[in-house]
Amino acid sequence: MEIREEMPVKAVGEFYIYVSKWVVKRFDANTAIFLSYLADAEYERKRNDGWFRVGVDEVEEETGFSYYLQAKAIKKLEEAGILEHKNMDLPQKRFFKFNYEQLKKMMEVE
To answer: The domain containing residue 86 runs over which residues?
Structure first.
């Protein structure tokens, strides 16, 4: 079974966000919330190439995280090797892609 199949189908609801205790311990609460939000967005918007789009304003509206807090979480997840981030299209939009193999390795070690 792949790790994505083990995650809740809907990580973000109208009044809640599921957060992994492991991610909170490994990173911090903000990064865990951001990761859960991205996982939910991926589930709904993933393209055939694995990339999905999530805008800065959208995340701020849903989580209250400023651009700065989002950038900090992205940096931590990229440095850990579990998230890729790039700007694509014109006008440029922010896209993400998960590396589930790296996430699985990290979870097995800890």
So the answer is: 20-109
